[in-house]
Amino acid sequence: EAWEVIEYKRIERKFKFNDFKEALDFTVKVGELAELEGHHPDIMLSWGKVVVTLTTHKIGGLSENDFILAAKIDRL
Amino acid sequence: EAWEVIEYKRIERKFKFNDFKEALDFTVKVGELAELEGHHPDIMLSWGKVVVTLTTHKIGGLSENDFILAAKIDRL
Predict the structure, then answer these.
(1) Any bridge partners for residue A10, and if so which?
(2) Deepest of A45, A76, B10, B59, by most Cβ within 10 A of its Cβ?
(3) Strand pairing partners for A51?
């Protein structure tokens, strides 16, 4: 899975897991990273799946911060 | 905010918080409760907001399990 650009306004990546617990643990890791970075994604958590969406609300589109956080999420 | 029935197939409730961290902590509580119950919601986490959606995939609609979990989430 890769980051997809949606309407040139946000990037989104889907992560798959073996169960709900693994998906929840990943959500927590992404959330803690977001707190450290001071930049917050939308996170859709469901059984075995997490979808992370990044955008910069202040400018209504994508900024460097989104790509920095995306790269750090990829390294989790 | 109350639980809303969507298309007679799922129930959904929005929870508001003061920041991302509080919303993340609530997501973890709901997730841990879901693991205990063996019934798993979809959870949409964003800054200051969590939307919990409950349905029973096996029957493609609502079952008693959804309302039991909804009541327990209300008591978190």
Answers:
(1) A6
(2) A45
(3) A14, A44
